């Protein structure tokens, strides 16, 4: 079972995905906050400068104040960009690159001490400035990142609301929820921390490399000789980690999907004693998620010590080569290698290795975030199967004249579910649709509000093709009551008002009275203000149906769809629901799918559907008289479902009457 799933994960990980395209698309969300990002950029430059200048100033402390005589012999060894030009003559520490001293090599000890104190205070001030700019930088990035995440979540949720029912029938709820929760969480970690660290690290690396080359390019190249190896290790390990993190994102989505399904179906699991099987299935999917995460962490955890080891090699090169050159008194690139220069390069190499190691660790987060962003954008690129035309028109108030003209429909290309359906429902008529399971009954009614689209033919309401109307203007005039109505975790009042948010409390109560629901609502602990549990838990199936009918009544639709609205309740509750439905159906064009006879007997026309075709049509009495498919269906199923049968005139089925008490 899970071997094929594992192969699917491996295929997902091998998909060629453009990282650049994903990042460019993500960057569009930052455009409204360009000014914040610009400020963050300025703060990043200042913060990086304070980190770059520190080792150089410490080197100056050694050469200019601790060993000034040696420094004077190494004039010009430090960066010419910052040296203070002096007149020719006796060498001074300033000529050796000392920024904050103008003392001769044989200056008094107190002067050197005073200069050292000033330099220490300057270094301390720079580090404080670096801390302040770092904090402001992270706040600015977090602020803009949170706004981007909000916009991304809203856009994703908005797009998901517009996707067709076919998409949701093919995708698990838990997996879709993972796109909004887990995948956006990985982005949050990056946008609030990792991204700024990586960008700052890259700037620090470039700046340090420039300063090292400016100080002594030969010594710098020797010190940085290990960098290509570090870069190769980073690229290789991050590539492996990225593939592994794509697996983890898919795996956690599958875990969420299985978890959601198991919780939703816990009653069925307990009823059929399938708890152990569910636990085993969840254990297996969780194991796949564990293995994917272990694999990803294995690569990311191996990268840090690898870079750390290479960093020690770089330090050894700096100390070893620099120490030998200094002891021998040899020059490199026309300048002497002093103790201060060695200390400066040692500080630079350590700072150089620091962002590389930091980037390597955070790169895993970036890879995970990119994988999550790809999944988010993949969902946002999903094209709804049912779309409005560019020039779609607002459907005027409808009267309820519904016509199916040679309608064909299919869920999979080449596999038609409906074949040439023709029907006409005049305003106020009730059309009952019956047939065996899988005949296409629900598909017919789903075409009216355009939950699906026809592949051929047309569905028209009052002469207007439903594909020419805007979805909102079409669906707002159609009421639907399903077999398993969905109730939200809010008050009874708000559940009924869901169909018309602008309705007053009095209008909601009137709809509840019409639906025969007012009486049981008043008995609830807080009446209409009672907060329902998930999916209406705490109410019986019949009570949930009555609230659904009240919701439809409040919308005051001119076309009403009832899809087996009474099939899951007892006979007594059915009669109550049927009374409410009959009141609701008055003056409305109604399409009814039902296995119970009560509603069907009173229909103006009854359509018998089998294998996607209407094979019989007429009234209840006419179809019984014809002794065709409906007659057999009635005798085998409907008759057995009624509580009381009174047979008159012998056993003639045409003369059977039902006691509908």
Structure description:
The structure is a single chain. This protein has 661 residues and is α/β, with parallel strands linked by helices. Among the domains are: 2-380, ABC transporter type 1, transmembrane domain (ABC transporter transmembrane region fold, Up-down Bundle); 484-555, P-loop containing nucleotide triphosphate hydrolases (Rossmann fold), CATH 3.40.50. 60% of the residues lie in helices and 11% in strands. It is built from 23 helices and 14 strands. It has helices spanning 2-14, 19-27, 34-66, 68-73, 109-162, 165-170, 173-180, 182-215, 217-223, 227-264, 266-271, 275-328, 339-380, 441-447, 471-475, 492-497, 505-514, 518-522, 541-555, 571-585, 597-601, 620-626, 629-641; strands at 331-332, 335-336, 402-412, 415-425, 430-434, 456-461, 464-465, 478-482, 559-563, 589-593, 605-610, 613-618, 645-646, 657-658. The protein has a six-stranded mixed beta sheet, sandwiched between helices. Strands 4-3-6-7 form a four-stranded antiparallel beta sheet, with helices on one face. Helix 8 runs antiparallel to helix 9 (217-223) and helix 19 packs parallel to helix 20 (571-585). The longest helix has 54 residues, at 109-162. The model is unreliable at 1-16, 73-96 and 641-661 (pLDDT under 50).
């Amino acid at each position: 079972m899970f071997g094929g799933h594992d192969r699917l994960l491996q295929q997902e990980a091998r998909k060629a995905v453009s990282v650049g395209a994903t990042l460019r698309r993500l960057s569009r969300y930052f455009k409204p906050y360009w000014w914040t990002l610009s400020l963050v950029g300025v703060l990043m430059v200042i913060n990086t400068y304070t980190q770059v200048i520190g080792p150089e100033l410490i080197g100056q402390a050694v050469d200019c104040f601790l060993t000034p005589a040696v420094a004077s012999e190494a004039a010009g060894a430090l960066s010419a960009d910052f040296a203070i030009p002096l007149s020719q003559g006796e060498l001074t520490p300033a000529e050796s690159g000392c920024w904050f001293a103008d003392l001769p090599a044989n200056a008094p000890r107190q002067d050197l001490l005073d200069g050292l104190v000033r330099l220490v205070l300057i270094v301390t001030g720079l580090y404080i400035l670096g801390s302040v700019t770092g904090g402001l930088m992270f706040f600015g990035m977090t602020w803009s990142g949170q706004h981007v995440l909000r916009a991304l979540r809203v856009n994703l949720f908005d797009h998901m609301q517009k996707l067709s029912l076919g998409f949701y029938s093919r995708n698990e709820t838990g997996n879709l929820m993972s796109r909004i929760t887990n995948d956006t969480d990985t982005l949050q970690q990056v946008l609030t921390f990792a991204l700024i660290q990586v960008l700052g690290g890259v700037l620090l690396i470039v700046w340090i490399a420039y300063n090292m080359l400016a100080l002594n390019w030969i010594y710098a190249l020797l010190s940085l000789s290990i960098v290509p190896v570090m870069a190769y290790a980073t690229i290789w390990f991050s590539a492996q980690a990225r593939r592994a993190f794509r697996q983890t994102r898919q795996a956690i989505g599958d875990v969420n999907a299985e978890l959601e399904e198991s919780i939703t179906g816990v009653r069925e699991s307990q009823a059929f004693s399938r708890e152990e099987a569910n636990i085993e299935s969840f254990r297996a999917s969780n194991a796949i998620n564990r293995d994917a995460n272990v694999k990803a962490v294995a690569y990311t955890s191996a990268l840090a010590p690898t870079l750390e080891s290479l960093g020690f090699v770089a330090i050894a090169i700096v100390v070893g080569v620099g120490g030998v050159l200094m002891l021998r008194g040899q020059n490199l690139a026309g300048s002497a290698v002093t103790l201060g220069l060695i200390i400066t390069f040692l500080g630079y190499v350590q700072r150089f290795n620091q962002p590389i190691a930091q980037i390597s660790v955070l790169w895993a987060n970036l890879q995970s975030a990119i994988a999550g962003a790809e999944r988010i954008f993949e969902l946002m690129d999903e094209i709804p199967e049912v779309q409005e035309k560019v020039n779609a028109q607002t459907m005027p108030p409808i009267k309820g004249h519904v016509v199916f003209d040679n309608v064909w429909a299919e869920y999979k290309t080449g596999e038609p579910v409906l074949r040439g359906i023709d029907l006409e429902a005049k305003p106020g008529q009730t059309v009952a649709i019956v047939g065996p399971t899988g005949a296409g009954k629900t598909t017919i009614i789903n075409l009216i509000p355009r939950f699906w689209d026809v592949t051929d033919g047309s569905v028209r309401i009052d002469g207007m093709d439903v594909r020419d109307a805007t979805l909102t203007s079409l669906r707002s005039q159609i009421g639907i009551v399903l077999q398993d109505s969905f109730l939200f975790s809010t008050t009874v009042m708000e559940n009924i008002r869901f169909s018309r948010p602008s309705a007053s409390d009095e209008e909601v109560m009137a709809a509840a009275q019409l639906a025969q629901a007012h009486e049981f609502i008043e008995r609830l602990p807080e009446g209409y203000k009672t907060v329902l549990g998930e999916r209406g838990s705490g109410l019986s199936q019949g009570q949930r149906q009555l609230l659904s009918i009240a919701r439809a009544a409040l919308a005051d639709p001119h076309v009403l769809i009832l899809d087996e609205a009474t099939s899951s309740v007892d006979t007594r509750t059915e009669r109550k629901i049927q009374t409410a439905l009959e009141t609701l159906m008055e003056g409305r064009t109604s399409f009814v799918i039902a296995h119970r006879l009560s509603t069907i007997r009173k229909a103006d026309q009854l359509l018998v559907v089998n294998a996607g075709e209407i094979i019989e049509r007429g009234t209840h009495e006419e179809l019984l008289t014809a002794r065709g498919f409906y007659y057999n269906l009635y005798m085998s199923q409907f008759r057995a479902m009624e509580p009381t049968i009174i047979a008159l005139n012998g056993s003639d089925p045409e003369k059977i009457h039902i006691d509908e008490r």
